[in-house]
Design goal:
Layout lengths: L6 H14 L2 H20 L4 H10 L8 H10 L6 H5 L1 H16 L6 H8 L10 H12 L9 H7 L4 H18 L6 H10 L3
The structure holds 2'-deoxyguanosine-5'-diphosphate (DGI) and fe (iii) ion (2 copies).
C-alpha cells in the first residue's frame, strides 16, 4: 500500500471485511475502526492508520482454528502452547497480521503490529497498538464489561492508565473461566501495572 492513500483504499478494505466476516463480527469491526479513528484524533495519531488497523484487526476471526494453525505452520509463525490450544481466542491476531500483509497489502509495520498485538498487547506498545487494543475493548457494540463507563471515559485521556484497567479486568475475567493466560498477556499487564 502506497504511503499516499485515498479513501477508496480504506473503502476497499471495508468491503472486503463485509464479505469476509459474519454480520456481527463486521459490525464489531466497524465499531473498532471508528473508535480507533476517534482515539487517534484525541491522541494525535494518524487517523487513517487507525482506521485500517481497526478494519483488519479481526480479519482472521472467521477462520476455523485448524486453518489458523495450518497458516502459522506454513508461514513458520511461532505459536505459544496457549495460542495453539486457543486459536480462535488468541491466534487470530497473529494470523490477521499475516493476512493484512500478504493478502490485503498492508506494508506499514506499525499497522501490522497493531493487529498482531490486539488481543494480548505487549510491553512498550506503540501509540497505534494501544489505540487498537483499547478500541477493541470499548467500541460501542461491546457488551458492557466491568468498569466500562470509566474505561470509555479515560481512554480519551490517558492510554496507559486505560491499558492497565483493561488488562486487570481481562486477567480477572480469565481467572473466572478455564482460559489459560498467555505469557504475553501477563507480561503486558506487569509492564503497565502501576504499583
Ligand atoms: O477478537 P475479539 O473478540 O474482538 O477480542 P480479542 O481479540 O481482544 O480477544 C478475544 C478473547 O481473547 C477475549 O475473550 C479475551 C481473550 N484473551 C485475552 N488474553 C488472553 C485471552 N484468552 C486466553 N486464553 N489467554 C489470554 O492470555
Ligand atoms: Fe480479536
Ligand atoms: Fe475485535
Amino acid at each position: 500500500m502506497s504511503p499516499k492513500r485515498n479513501l477508496t483504499e480504506t473503502e476497499k478494505l471495508r468491503q472486503a471485511m463485509e464479505k469476509e466476516l459474519s454480520s456481527g463480527r463486521y459490525i464489531h469491526t466497524l465499531g473498532v475502526a471508528y473508535t480507533a479513528s476517534c482515539l487517534a484524533m484525541a491522541h494525535e495519531e494518524d487517523m487513517e492508520n487507525a482506521m485500517i488497523a481497526g478494519l483488519l484487526h479481526d480479519c482472521a476471526k472467521g477462520m476455523h482454528g485448524s486453518e489458523q494453525v495450518a497458516i502459522c505452520e506454513k508461514a513458520r509463525i511461532h505459536m505459544s502452547a496457549v495460542e495453539r490450544s486457543n486459536p480462535s481466542a488468541l491466534l487470530h491476531a497473529k494470523v490477521g497480521a499475516y493476512l493484512a500483509e500478504h493478502k490485503y497489502g498492508v506494508t506499514q509495520p506499525d499497522i501490522i503490529n497493531a493487529i498482531r498485538y490486539h488481543t494480548t498487547g505487549r510491553p512498550d506498545m506503540s501509540k497505534l497498538e494501544k489505540i487498537v487494543y483499547i478500541a477493541d475493548y470499548i467500541e460501542p457494540g461491546r457488551k458492557p464489561l466491568a468498569d466500562m463507563d470509566m474505561i470509555r471515559r479515560i481512554a480519551f485521556q490517558d492510554l496507559d492508565w486505560t491499558l492497565e484497567k483493561i488488562l486487570a479486568n481481562t486477567l480477572a475475567y480469565l481467572q473466572t473461566t478455564d482460559g489459560q493466560i498467555d505469557d504475553m498477556t501477563a507480561k503486558t499487564y506487569q509492564y503497565y501495572k502501576r504499583v
